[in-house]
Amino acid sequence: MKWTIQQLQQARYETIHFDELVEMEEVLTEHPDVRGSSSIQFKGTIVAKRNVYTFQFTISGKLTLPCSRTLADVDWPFEIEGTAHFVLQGETRPVELVEEDCYSYSGEELDVSHLLQERILVEIPIQVFADNPSNVLAPPSGKDWELITDKAKQKQVDPRLADLAKFFDKE
User: Fold this and answer.
1) Cβ-contact 121, 33 below 8 angstroms
2) Which residues are CB-neighbours of 80 under 8 A, at least 6 positions away?
3) What letters, b where the CB count within 10 A reaches 16 and e where it falls short, cover 97-123?
4) Which of 57, 129, 139, 153 maximizes the CB count within 10 A of its CB?
5) Residues 40, 120: contact at Cβ < 8 Å?
6) What is the pLDDT of residues 84-139, one digit of tens each?
7) Could you write out the three-class secondary structure of the chain?
8) Which candidate, 126, 125, 86, places its Cα nearest to that of 106?
9) Distances (CA, A) of 99 to 87, 94, 102, 150
10) Is the CB of residue 55 less than 8 Å from the CB of residue 44?
11) Between 146 and 59, whose confidence is greater?
């Protein structure tokens, strides 16, 4: 999601409208709770005043998150509305702008992909629950863990005691 400053200069005369689908699954799945992502719809308007570019936007899509009870995959739809102001690096921001919504830029391109990533990751809930947890099965294994049933645990022999088990078989 990049715009050149030359393209954004057109917003001084008329508002620029945008509506784009962005693939961010690779970036979003770096977060430990995000297992997958749909295409992200990013739409809104851009207005320019001096060297400040104001984005009014809506971000929507779906993330796949683990259920807090069963660790099963749960689709979490989201729709985030927001405003972001991009101020030329080295210039002071206008006092009427909210500091949390201000970002600095330099160069001839304005990249808003970090803005999308930040806004989506901040909105991820602490707990997500499956609608009907009895129908959803938890994954049998994951990174550095595996589900072991009682029967499988009884059949499993500790490798340190394997030689001792052979001792009783000889008689």
Assistant:
1) no
2) 58, 59, 60, 119, 120, 123
3) eeeeeebebeeeebebeebbbebbeee
4) 57
5) yes
6) 998 888 887 777 888 888 888 888 888 888 889 999 999 999 898 887 755 656 66
7) CEEEHHHHHHHHCCCEEEEEEECCHHHHCCCCCCCEECCEEEEEEEEEECCEEEEEEEEEEEEEEECCCCCCEEEEEEEEEEEEEEEECCCCCCCCCCHHHEEEECCCEEECHHHHHHHHHHHCCCCCCCCCCCCCCCCCEECCEECCCHHHHHHCCCHHHHHHHHHHHCC
8) 86
9) 11, 10, 5, 56
10) yes
11) 59
Place of tokens 């979003």: 28
What does the block give as tokens for 125?
Answer: 């809930």
